[in-house]
User: Fold this.
Amino acid sequence: MPIPMRIVLFLAVFTVSAPVRVAAADSPRIVALHQTACQFVEAEGGDKHYRAASFDACAALNESTGEKRLVASQPLKLAPGPYIFRVYNVDVPYPLGFWLRGSGFRRVTLLSVSGGGIKTGGFRDYAIELKAGEYRYSCPLNPTPDYVLQVKMAVK
Assistant:
């Protein structure tokens, strides 16, 4: 039995006009960040081997060293697009978190992501679509300095 012409045309139009998406181009890129006591290792160019068993101990350390460490830290530079920030608790003896948010006057228009519950030796993923602008990231539970993330069209 022959297929009616209108069904053949429908199938041809649907097949030709259906959007084709390449999964790899749309896949989020993973950025691994490692937390040790009072710091993100990547931002400070390595583990500074701080030891703190509590929030208060990190708060005290950051009060005396945080500003200097932040000036010496390297901004994370990324291109716009989808990302997964995979945040590890390397050896901190209490659960940690992560907070990424816009900074400056655009902080209201830039997305943010946050959460906690990262146990010692574990990690958690935080998905976000980054737009051009400047962000800050930190751990309010550890706590850490507010490190800089720059998102620009051309990353060098």
User: Anything to note?
Assistant: Residues 5-23 have pLDDT under 50 and may be disordered. DSSP finds three helices and nine strands in the chain. Residues 55-72 form the longest helix (18 residues).
